[in-house]
Amino acid sequence: MLTALKVIPQLLCWAILVPALSRSxxxxxxxxxxxxxxxAGVAGENLLLAYVGGEIPFRPLRGICGVIFLxxxxxxxxxxxxxxxxxxxxEPPAPGPIAAGAAAVSVGVLAGALTxxxxxxxxxGAVRLIPYLSLAGAGAVVALGAAxxxxxxxxxxAPRGIPLMALVVSALMVMACSVQRLDLFSPLSxxxxxxxxxxxxxFFESMLIPDHPFFRSDVWGYxxxxxxxxxxxWGGLALWYLPVxxxxxxxxLERLPSVAHIRQGAARRKLLAAFIRERRLRLAAPLLALVxxxxxxxxxxxxAAEYWDPKPIEVTATPAGQIAIPKKGEVDLEDGKLHKFxxxxxxxxxxxxxMLTPAGQLVxxxxxxAICQPEGYGQAGNAVICYYCxxxxxxxxxxxxxxxxxxxxxxxxxxxxxxxxGMALLNSWESTVQVTAxxxxxxx
Length: 444
Hints:
Layout: H1 2-6, H2 8-24, H3 28-51, H4 59-81, H5 87-90, H6 97-117, H7 129-149, H8 162-177, H9 185-206, H10 217-223, H11 229-252, H12 265-282, H13 284-301, E1 313-315, E2 322-326, E3 339-345, E4 348-356, E5 362-366, E6 377-380, E7 383-386, E8 392-394, E9 408-409, E10 411-414, E11 417-421, H14 422-436
Parallel strand pairs: 1-3
Antiparallel strand pairs: 2-11, 3-4, 4-5, 5-9, 6-7, 7-8, 10-11
Helix pairs in contact: 2-3, 2-6, 2-7, 2-8, 3-6, 3-7, 4-8, 4-11, 6-8, 8-13, 9-11, 11-13
InterPro entries: FtrD-like
Keywords: Membrane, Transmembrane, Transmembrane helix
Pfam families: FtrD-like (PF10080)
């Protein structure tokens, strides 16, 4: 029952996509091609999960989703550029049966693979046989059943060209963002936030603004707003919505048909009114795409997953300043889970965690990265998540520097304990936090 509930949003998106494809392209043949593609996508992705494992089955899908979103951006700019044209000039010719079938199969394969990933175990491996077969059958039945209803869809509501592309891509984004390892919106927000942080930091440093005598403390408070997580969120939302908004604007700005050849005023008004009504109906696809994108962003910001996030255990150092954590002490460091600790020396304090990577190596990192504010990490399956920007980091890269990865801390394994230099830990924490917390990286 719980397995079926997981894929209901994906199947609903699929049920909307298939009628739009079959009504706009080549009818029932398109629906059959889409259903075939869906089953093939489910089967192919499950084979990858079974025989390859790890993050490899997810990376191509995430890359494809990123590419089609970029293509949507390009198409939206082109549509806006051609917005002064008439409808016949702005729309491409209808695709032939072969092209329509190829497009339907491609969309079906991608939709099936994305939907199956929703059922993939967090610890890796293939989906069990009964859920796998049930999903493949449900996707085919939904496709054929929805296509039989497509004939009742008014011709004027059938999206074509770039509006159809917007509807398809936005529905696929919903399917992708429901899977943590395929999410695109959170990484997009993080990149926007990182760009703004780096740009503002470098600009202020190059202009020597932090040392300007006329900058009061309240001015720095306003500047610090640029270093909040909301900057990345709103910037990401702008990039997320703009393509569909451009397409809607392009439809709205389409040139009215010429009526100079019509002598009767009533006939002119009737033709223009019919065109305006049809143009309004054609806005249904971009508006539905906006709803899909909103659902995708919501799923990204509030994923339906519980993270392993243990309370930090306080540790002490020897007189020589060495922190020794037993492998099999209060916790088992080699159980594959993230284990958090805190170390205090006077008024100084640092948070860090120790875990065993899939390669079998014990690593120690700060509970913070070099980009985001230090809100820490949680673990879900074979990834950890940054609570600040919601970015997923595969366990294979934990312990390596760069990006949103937790900052590595040098450690050594001596006998049955992991040993860390306490002073180096505190210095690393403070040098990281002073750059990321509350906009202090500007030298305030």
